[in-house]
Each structure stands twice: as C-alpha cells, then as structure tokens.
C-alpha cells in the first residue's frame, strides 16, 4: 500500500493552520492500518486530533468497510476564507485493501468547514463529494479530456466528467488551455460548496459550469516562486476560451472586467461559464 507523506501548507498561505487542520482530519479518517476499519476506530482517530468524534459519521466515501486504507492529499484549496469561518476543499486519492488482499484505487474531494477557535481552528462539518454513476459512453469531448496527458485530473474531477453532468463549455476550455499549458485541475463539479462561500449566490461548480486549477505547468499557483506572468497569462487565456468569470491571485484591471482576485483565490485559478 502506498504511504504518501502528509500534505503540508507552504509559507505563503493566507491561513496555513486552516488547511493543516482540514488535512489532518481527512487523513485521519481516510487511512488506517490492517484491521483498523470501522466506525468506532474512525471516531477514535478523530478524537485523537481534539475534534468532535461525531465528525467521523459525516465521512461517507472516506471510510469504506475495507481491511486497510491509505490516502494521499493531492491538494488542499480554499472553497472560501473569511475572518471567522472557512471552507477547505481537500482533494484526495485513496487506496483500499480488502480482506482478500486485493487493492483498489479511488478518491474523493471533501468540503471541510471550519470556524475560528483557540488555540486552533476547529472543524464544524464535512461534505464529501458524490459525482454519481458514469454514463455508458462519454461524449467525444470528455473522452479527449480524460485521455489528454496535459490535463491532470484527481479522481473526483474525472468522475464528474464521466458522469455526463459537466457542460461542454468546461470541456472545450480545458482542451483549448491544454494546448499551451499543462493544467492540474483540483475541482470541477462536486466537492465544492453549493453557494459562493459566505453568500447565498449559487456557485457555478455544482451546476457543472466551472473548474479550478491549482497548478500550471507543474508550478503551484499559491507558490510565490511561480512567475506571476505565467498565472496572468493563464487567466487571460481562460477568458479567451470563453470564461466570463476568472478568479486568481493576480489582479487584472479593466472596467467591467471578467477577472477578480481575493483571499479565497490566492491558491488557485477559477474558470466559470454561463452555460
């Protein structure tokens, strides 16, 4: 079974401990040694972090009834960050071993909700994504995205595409951007808050009309060493690919601009569409 190191926030994060807290919980829930499965064991792992054991009851696909599991956090991205509350989208790959020794690979994305507390932020809820079943035959565009090595998809984002619930505008923009860039996608449809965090305005993600990119050409958006020119170029090209709403860490001026920046988008580029 793979044993990846625990994901750690970098020095330029807006609130490093918010992400660290969310990742610690998801890693504790989604990995266990041989014969460590079961609800009571999961609750004990959560309690050992100083968090409410009942959070284990919200873990859903993170805690399948298998003999052993290991988990890799691919990325931890803000779904929203305010002064006293936050959403962290923990993007995971998981390996599970059955009692017969067979190993399966999968993964999910978990919307972890947190609130400010002392000495550390605390977790108030978990919302694992649920892409639903795959269609019998993916559309030609989806098949191209799934086969394109310059588009890196975590398990849940790939499942979103296979489900047939992602608009073609998203698919075509991914393919267009994969010409000049290698893009590492974090979130497409599921695993994202239903509303824009802190508002009652529906997000484009659950409607299959947006995707987020956390790494461009192998360079993490949040890393201060990543050239800002690269990020700005990607944002401009995302707009040229049809996005009406491009968010990221770079402020791109202009009256009536389709670009925006804020703390939530300090660590990724959001690419949204009207249809």
Give structural attributes.
single chain; 275 residues; alpha+beta; Nuclear Transport Factor 2, Chain: A; Muramoyl-pentapeptide Carboxypeptidase, domain 2; 2 domains; seven-stranded mixed sheet; five-stranded antiparallel sheet; 25% strand; globular
Uncertain spans, ≥5 residues at pLDDT below 50?
A: none
Largest sheet: 7 strands, mixed
User: How many beta-strand segments?
Assistant: 12
Mean residue pLDDT: 96
- Topology pattern, helix = H, strand = E: HHEEEEEHEHHEEEHEEE
Total number of distinct structural domains: 2
- CATH architectural arrangement of the largest domain: 2-Layer Sandwich
Our Rg estimate from Cα atoms comes to 18 Å
Distance between the termini: 41 Å
The CATH class name of the largest domain reads: Alpha Beta
CATH topology of the largest domain: Muramoyl-pentapeptide Carboxypeptidase, domain 2
Residues in helices, as a percent range: 10-25%
Inertia-based shape: globular
Given helix and strand content, the structural type is alpha+beta
């Amino acid at each position: 079974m793979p044993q990846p190191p625990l994901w750690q926030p970098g020095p330029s994060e807006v609130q490093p401990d918010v992400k660290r807290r969310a990742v610690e919980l998801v890693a504790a829930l989604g990995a266990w040694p041989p014969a460590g499965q079961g609800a009571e064991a999961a609750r004990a792992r959560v309690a050992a972090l100083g968090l409410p054991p009942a959070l284990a009851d919200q873990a859903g696909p993170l805690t399948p009834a298998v003999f052993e599991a290991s988990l890799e956090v691919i990325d931890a991205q803000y779904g929203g960050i305010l002064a006293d509350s936050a959403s962290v989208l923990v993007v995971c790959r998981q390996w599970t071993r059955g009692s017969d020794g067979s190993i399966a690979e999968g993964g999910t994305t978990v919307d972890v909700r947190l609130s400010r507390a002392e000495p550390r932020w605390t977790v108030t809820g978990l919302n694992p994504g649920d892409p639903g079943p795959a269609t019998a035959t993916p559309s030609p565009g989806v098949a191209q995205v799934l086969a394109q090595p310059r588009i890196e998809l975590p398990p849940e984002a790939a499942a979103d595409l296979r489900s047939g619930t992602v608009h073609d505008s998203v698919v075509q923009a991914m393919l267009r951007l994969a010409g000049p860039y290698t893009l590492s996608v974090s979130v497409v449809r599921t695993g994202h808050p239903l509303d824009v965090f802190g508002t009652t305005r529906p997000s484009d993600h659950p409607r299959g009309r947006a995707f987020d990119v956390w790494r461009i050409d192998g360079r993490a958006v949040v890393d201060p060493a990543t050239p800002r020119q690269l990020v700005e170029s990607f944002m401009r090209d995302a707009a040229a690919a049809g996005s009406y709403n491009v968010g990221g860490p770079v402020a791109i001026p202009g009256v009536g601009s389709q670009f925006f920046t804020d703390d939530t988008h300090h660590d990724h580029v959001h690419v949204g569409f009207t249809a």
